[in-house]
Amino acid sequence: MQRPRFELPEALVMEILSKLPVKSLTRFNCVCKYWCSSFQTPYFISNNYHNNLNLLLSLCGGNTFQRYFSQLSNEKYQNYIVKQNIHLPFFKHDRPSVYGACHGLLCLLDPSKDKAAIWNPSTREFKILPPSSIQRPPYFSPFDETYLTLDDVEFNHAAFGFDSKTDDYKVIRFVTLTFVNSEEEYPHPHFMYQVELYSLRSNSWKEIPSPDYKPTEKTLGNNYVDGICYWKTGTGAYLDFRGLILSFDMGNEKFSILPIPEFVGSFPEYYVNLLVFNRSLGAIVYPKERIDTSFDLWVTSEGVWTKQFNIKSISGVVHLLGFGKNGDLFLTDTNDEVLLFDASTQELKELEINTYLDHYRFDISLHAYLESLVRINGIQEIEKHVIRQPARDASNEY
């Protein structure tokens, strides 16, 4: 006797599929045209990218001093391992930095060149952004009574986010123009600043009014929360220095200034690193002049800052990298080894991460992103640029 055929409703099938990782969904594209088209609907994409958090280590070093990215996974043995190492061919001779993550997409930019890209590490799609078409204004020096020569252009303190009003992804970057008197033997530099905004929808850059304040430091991992980007800035000289937070709304394209919270204390004596923690703006605060350093994490909600936890004195820690899953804090020591601090147990351990640059590496940063099917009308990575070199006891599968 033939058993009756049982079919699940399509809505339930899509709900089940939305829980799967991007790797599986990519394979299922060939099952049928309906599945393939359904995977690209805004509803399905939004359901999918909220599920799977991934971590990406950005490292520079080796014999060629090139930038590599190591995807981390803690699915096996409850320990962080390298899932794969990736070298991006479109930055072959450059050293790009990651400036933010949004909806599973990462923005990469080389500060020394007019070169940027948007990258989806889950689908391996990337889009190289067009060069800026914005005019660089001349600089007239009243002292020299002449126009100066443009000597250098730097692209720093970028951010990447989403404008929900126009359904558009945008990149903002601060441009520093250096002018000199070319007739002087030892010319004194003069600086001018511009701000550029890229729209993925129009695939073009435009200049927007520059704020009175400039970002002073790069943030930890990501500085974008719910349509707004944040940077640390300040005003005044050393003893009179006052810390501030510069923000930019991707929707109305306006800058604002927020005060650094009073809990910081005497600002020159403390480091304050902005970061995203549990989808909220956070600040890691720690003293500058101590060998064994303790950390306080503060998070803001609707303008109110609350202390999340304190990490007691940790000896030998040099740099903070950021947070992973379940509040795990990543750090580096004096040997550039990556450490993991478990806030719940107050335990610190060396991860012994096996990366492509084990013998010599520097400029390490950590970036958290959600797996995503979002398409950016780009091109596909070449498989040969994925270097499979997992840590000990890890599977070679990807």
Could you say which structural class the secondary elements and strand pairing correspond to? Answer: mainly beta
Total count of domains? 1
Described by strand count, sense and barrel closure, the largest sheet is: 5 strands, antiparallel
Give the number of DSSP strands: 27
Q: CATH-wise, what's the superfamily?
A: Kelch-type beta propeller
Question: Could you tell me the mean pLDDT?
Answer: 76
Our estimate of the beta-strand percent is over 45%
Spans of at least 5 consecutive residues with low confidence? 383-398
Oligomeric state of the chains present here: single chain
CATH class: Mainly Beta
| Terminal Cα span | 43 Å
Number of helices: 4
The rounded Rg comes to 23 Å
Q: Tell me the helix content.
A: under 10%
Q: How does CATH name the architecture?
A: 6 Propeller
Q: Looking at the structure, what is the overall shape?
A: globular
Biggest sheet, spatial arrangement of strands:
25-1-2-3-27
Organism: Gossypium raimondii
Protein name: F-box domain-containing protein
InterPro entries: F-box-assoc_dom_typ1, F-box-assoc_interact_dom, F-box-like_dom_sf, F-box_dom, SCF_F-box_component
Structure description:
Residues 8-48 form the F-box domain. This is F-box domain-containing protein. It comes from Gossypium raimondii. With 398 residues, the protein is mainly beta. It has a single domain, classed as Kelch-type beta propeller (Neuraminidase, 6 Propeller), CATH 2.120.10.80. It is built from four helices and 27 strands. It has helices at 10-17, 22-28, 33-38, 42-48, and strands at 53-61, 66-73, 81-86, 97-102, 105-110, 115-120, 125-128, 139-141, 146-163, 168-180, 190-199, 204-208, 224-225, 228-235, 242-249, 254-259, 270-277, 280-287, 292-301, 304-315, 317-323, 329-333, 338-342, 347-350, 361-370, 379-380, 386-387. The longest helix is centred in the first third of the chain and has 8 residues, at 10-17. Residues 383-398 have low confidence and may be disordered.
